[in-house]
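Posting this for the archive.
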Amino acid sequence: MPAAIALCKFVGTISLGLLTGVSYTLSTQSLPSLLTLPSATPAAHTLIQTQRLAGRHILALSSISAYTLAFAFWLSPRRLRHPYLLWTSLLAWSSGMPLTYLMSKTFKHQITTEEAMDANGEQIEIATRDRQWMEFVRMGISGLGFVMGVVGIWGDGA
């Protein structure tokens, strides 16, 4: 049983670290490079593809992280249950699912496949900047969760 708990903590923390890295890469490298494309149509298609693929990975990593950390809390004996596992699990969950939902409802500059053919450069820039801002927010939340997980695992071993 202790090996299963340690494995869940490890998998959850590593997944949260990968999620932080995905958000960091999107916000600092991938999305800003879209703004350098010479035309709005390829930029729109690339933005749609990036959002679709990144959304799948973000959802998978946040789900794996949230569920394995919550499972580690549930598996732990009552006297050894650390609340950092629940807090870290909550941060992992909030950095994935609700932010993606809120982003689709809050920002009106989502570009669909049909609109990509008629999109102008200003629409693409606004949509890219909105997505970049949400990735910065996601990076901060998941980064905080990752730090909490690493400190918690380190504290468990000390």
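The mean pLDDT is 86. The two ends are 19 Å apart (CA to CA).
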